[in-house]
Amino acid sequence: MKVAIVILNWNGKKLLEQFLPSVIEYSEQATIYVADNASSDDSIEFVLENFPSVKIIKNTENGGYAKGYNDALKDLNEEILCLLNNDIEVTKDWLLPILGTFEKEPNTAIIQPKILDYKQKDYFEYAGAGGGFIDKFGYPYCRGRIFNTIEKDLGQYNDIEDIFWASGACLFIRNHVFKKLNAFDENFFAHMEEIDLCWRAKNLGYNVMYVGESEVYHVGGATLNNSNPKKTYLNFRNSLYALTKNAKGNLFLLILTRLILDGVAGVKFLLEFKLKHITAIIRAHYSFYSHLSVLLKQRKSLEKRKKYYNLTSIVLNYYVYKNRLYKSL
Q1: pLDDT-based confidence at 223, cuts 50/70/90?
Q2: Residues of the chain with CATH 3.90.550.10
Q3: Which of 166, 279, 295, 310 has the most Cβ atoms closer than 10 angstroms to its Cβ?
Q4: Domain at 3-218: CATH code
């Protein structure tokens, strides 16, 4: 199977210098691309000079993750696309279990490997861990990571498992499915656009899988860390976007409940004196209201929606019932 590994980059010369060598060394089966989002540093010159086998795609603007990848992938012809963050170290033979699963599972459209923490390699990494899910109200969680509780890797997720969403930090997708889904929704800009993409794939009847035999190590937060209010804004806003577009059932009641829960999160930030994060939630809600008509039009145009959640509320399980590990849910 022909594979394109596409690394989206924006002013990430130092990250490319650190992590691109492992991708080149351990990805003999793939063609490697660096898709540059109009960087102002000398990332492109560095890659051209030091890694001549890597192909360059030059985007004309920094459209974030969603538009950046949409622009970069539109003309690629490889059967399998790997969307790889520029702060990921890959491992020997990491592609083989992924490609093997694609060959054995023709209805599987999207795959994620095991994502471990580059700084603590025996722990899972926040963004994806052992495969992603969301609860009834759209809050994401992973096998190996629920909110800020990270599990140690003890081999508990060395399996192949059906999941709901694959992390955009390292996401494999069949090229024809990516095009059939009309790519990422560029309104998301960054964060949770992969959840929306996987959701739409699920609604079309495709499978999203986790393959634990393949391992990568992710720095995480290299572009935007968890303490940044902008990330809070994007996560809260984009979660509401995805719910409105894709969720099955009584949308009004679902969104109303979610808005109330977001208010509770705001109170938590207030008690922690994180005032900028409260402002971020308010801005996220305002953006949601201003885009509501567009979201509702998208909702009407999408395929039949299916049930998407494994439990009613991850917030209730985590904060009230104190279920901090995936196996306790």
Answers
A1: low
A2: 3-218
A3: 166
A4: 3.90.550.10
